[in-house]
Design brief:
The C terminus is likely disordered. The strands form 4 sheets. This protein has a 5-stranded parallel β-sheet with strand order 2-3-1-4-7, with helices on both faces. The chain starts with 11 loop residues before the first helix and ends in an 11-residue tail after the last helix. The protein has 23 helices and 14 strands. A hairpin with a 6-residue loop joins strand 12 and strand 13. The longest helix has 22 residues. By secondary structure, it is an alpha/beta fold.
Length: about 475
Amino acid sequence: MDAPARPWPPPPPVGAYAEERELFRLLQNMLEELLIHKPDDPIQYMINHLKQNNDDAPRICVLGPPASGKTTVAMWLCKHFDAIRISQETLLFKEILTLTKEAKACKERKQKIPNALWANLIQERLSNVDCIKQGWILEGFPENQEQAWMLQSSGIIPRHVVVLYAPDTVLIERNSGKRLDPFTEEVYHTTFNWPSDLLVQQRLVEPEDLSEQEISKKLLEYHRNFPGVFQIYQKILKSINADQPSVDVLSQVLTYVQTRHRSAAPFTPRILFCGPPGSGKSLQAALIAQKYGVVNICCGQLLKEAVADKTKLGELVKPYIDSGYPVPDNLVMKILAERLNALDCVTNGWVLYGFPRDVEQGEQLQKSHIIPNRVFFFNLPYESIMERLSQRRIDPVTGERYHTTFRPAPTPEIQVRLRQHPRDKEENIEKQLETYYRNVKELEDFYEGAFYVNADQDPHVVFECIESCIIKPLPCKKLKSL
């Protein structure tokens, strides 16, 4: 038997499963680890990697000039993520590592600790079980491009790099009031962040190297080295202004480190638009389909096409459409599932609107393994909906659509013959809205990861908002079970 001319596409449930479980990212991470570490037994190495289940553990570098707040940010992130903080102080005075003695000796002789020694210390510490399982926050490392290259060659590759910055004058002023709690290693300031606890106040000490000359020297060295570090990490680096309240700094840092970098995984858009009548779903679906080549599917139009094509299902649907009664959900689902499982939808993706209208229909979609990966709810005030719909008119001669305010008839002759569709009368619009708002809350709860769009603005602005949500990665979501 001859082989088919082209391979069959995977059935939709397979693609949805791979996407939901992030199989591409899992395989990509394992391949990266194999190429970096080159184990003698790659199969066993991959088994161990899967057992560790640490692909979502934080791997963050917090960089910045002296007195920019690196320690405060790193300690806060460690508490938030239950991760391990690694800094010069922890490596030299808190850890018992093979090379600690050698690094301390350099420090005591007031010699600069070599980059290779720092890299080896960090590598040894990060290979411990706690860092592997819980993740790590690397504070103040790498200090220069050579350290960054050494860390990368050892397989130490951060997912996020946070760089704090502030004017040198601000940093010098901050440094003069800096105080350290030797018990907790928390950093305080005599002006900006003084502890309320009297016991903490009494045990605060001045850190070493507080002279203005020394801090200026360190700032100069930082500015000289940072461009080389930036060159290596620029794709995963975020600069944050440290000259603002600490709450704002921490909020911006957390927002960034919780973002997902864009994946190279193949992505087939499965987009669902929900919203009241007149909110612009059909226009936005047409714009998305035109730009990205996805299949534009209006549920109502799909039913009419089935009737026009005189399919078996269309014959069953015809009496309902002719009489104006709602088509039963089971018939709608059969027609919809057949269309969404067609080759063009599976290959190119789709944008659907007009279904589901309530949570029961949403559940039926899910049972049929039709699971959208982007859901949008369009929000529009009642007054705007009435203005958009109640003033629509149609030319019975040409079929052209007009609007008394936004697109009036070009000539008096056309104006005279315009007619209003019965569904656009105010009483009928109100019935549709009442049905929509009665069901939408449960539907919003069902699609808990949905995006909400202000549809009461220029259509191109709405499109840009939708587009940005389609192309950016979704936040990491822990699965309840595997």
